[in-house]
Amino acid sequence: MTTSTAEKPAESHVFEADVARLLHMMVHSVYSDKDVFLRELISNAADACEKLRYEAIANPALLAGDTDSRITISLDEEGRKFTVEDNGIGMSRDELIEALGTIARSGTRAFMERIEADKAGEGTQLIGQFGVGFYSCFMVADRVDVVSRRASADEAWLWSSEGKGNYRIAPVDAVDAPARGTRITLHLMEEAKSYTSRWSVERIVKEQSGHVPVPISIVVKPGDEPAQLTDGTALWAKSKTDITPEEYTDFYRGVSGQYDEPALNVHFRAEGRHEYTALAFVPGSPPFDLFDPDRKGRMKLYVKRVFITDEAELLPRYLRFVRGLVDSADLPLNVSREMIQESPILSAIRKGVTSRVITAMEKLAESDGDAFIKLWEAFGSVIKEGIYEDYERRAQLMALSRFRTTASGEGYRSLADYVKNAKEGQTAIYYLTGSSPEQLKASPQLEGFRARGIEVLLLTDSVDSFWVTNAPEFEGKAFKSITQGSADLAQFKKVDGQAAASEETPSDIRGFIAFAKDKLGQEISDVRASDRLTESAVCLVASEQGYDRQLEKILQGAGRLQSAAKPILEINPDHPMIKALAANTIDSSLREDAAFLLLDQARVLDGDKPIDPRAFAERLARLMERALPQ
């Protein structure tokens, strides 16, 4: 027989510890997103159902014929109430005081300690091993009522508090309490009344708690029948053989917010020292935030199927386009969730997931080259950031990378393809950086390499100028910019069968080079004969030390380089114009104007402006006057 509530008056208790200060910390410091209160309530409700399942193994009578666990959310817009109810283990009066009267203690923590002591609870999936999650309710509610009945008990109890230093405990009539379990009612603040909107609640549940191992239902209006929100299963916990491609795609679209087809999915379970499940997707098209300056990833972290954060940096930043989640069985759920990325367990998970994602891309490149090229066109510019940043995987990422080259046509080639195609005696992998393939293909620096059939990488992404300086070599060949230092092409025959040109430059050409160097000394560091030019008269190159031409421009444009180094002007000794200028030793003013115009011509070919536009125009006018008949 249930004892009348009139015989047991309400009791008032003071929270243990400085609850007012701690609640203030909870509301204003610990959690940055108020939606988290619902995650916490669902986590605790799922815990209660798991506790009942465990205890019912030894005492089946606790289930009392109600064997299906459930969590029900009820909304009351008019009354501004939000209720979460479970049919789990429930709490007695003493357990309510123990679990909810002390912030630093947790009923779940005590339960886990008991399981560990008797060694009988291995495999039990409990979520909230902490004593503060419940108090996140006070971020959105100015009063919280908890009605709970312990499984198999007759008495039910009410715990109530405004979170300001004390709470009340009172018995309640059986008709006003769950038959078993706990009902938490939040009297919402005015600014939190949006939590009575079904759309808002459904979004939060599916995003943050959609995969706890207990079905969740919702009642939109008092008296309505519950409608199921989640079925208590997690897609990633299923065997891959039990999941259809359509289910993977639907899940991908939900977790990524995109509506395309995933280019690749990676689904695996790691066991051993650390246990976790990962389900990751490479999108079929670039996400809109791919090049956000913060370069944050979007992988979600779950612990025992409860969403923790999407800011745990589960993958390196050069894989930030990957979408999905990791569900860990080892990480604790505690007050430091926002700092959980510092955990050594998470470091091991990050390493494992990164390796599996890269390996999956390697397998795709081997099995379906066309599909991989589509992936590379979407994300190659980001993946190459890893060559610059990830020393451990640098060689692996270089092998994975694909490039447009002077030999690839409209396709792509790997560095292994390049090395296989290298000329006998070629010790370097040559590259040219710039803003577009069309610009690079028209570059005069390519002429000598093209004439000798030497392949050159055409690199058009900004990151290319950086990783090539950080990648010492690939299969024994160093990377060398064709706009920096000497080309050393004299050893190679031209593809038309002509022998390599003599290294001896004619005396008149040497004289003109010395003249130009004297006149242009304020603008350039050297003038020399070129073996990289076959069609153009001149080009600019950087010195062997320092930066190549494109990297120098990038650094200067970003304000990281105050002044550029003086370039080297290379002159094609076989060009008719150079031969004519070298032969004219009488008119020094003509030769001086020509020297400056050659420098400006080289700058224009390099994508720059003449040094002095007015002086350029005047010199060009004088030259045209001499050329035109009088």
Compute the gyration radius: what is it?
36 Å
The number of E-state strands comes to 23
The chain-level mean pLDDT equals 86
Continuous helix count: 19
> What coarse outline follows from CA principal-axis ratios?
elongated
CATH class of the largest domain, anyone? Answer: Alpha Beta
The major pleated sheet works out as: 9 strands, mixed
CATH topology of the largest domain: Heat Shock Protein 90
Widest sheet: strand ordering: 1-6-5-4-7-3-2-8-9
Structural class: alpha+beta
Characterise the protein shown here.
The chain has 630 residues and is α+β, with helices and mostly antiparallel strands. It has 3 domains: 5-230, Histidine kinase-like ATPase, C-terminal domain (Heat Shock Protein 90, 2-Layer Sandwich); 235-373, Ribosomal Protein S5, domain 2 (2-Layer Sandwich), CATH 3.30.230; 504-543 and 558-630, Four Helix Bundle (Hemerythrin (Met), subunit A). 34% of the residues lie in helices and 19% in strands. The chain is built from 19 helices and 23 strands. The strands form 4 sheets. Strands 1-6-5-4-7-3-2-8-9 form a 9-stranded mixed sheet, with helices on one face. Strands 16-15-18-17-20-19 form a 6-stranded mixed sheet, with helices on both faces. Helix 7 crosses helix 8, helix 15 (507-519) crosses helix 17 (576-583) and helix 15 crosses helix 18 (588-605). The radius of gyration is 36 Å and the shape is elongated. Residues 120-124 and 127-131 have low confidence and may be disordered.
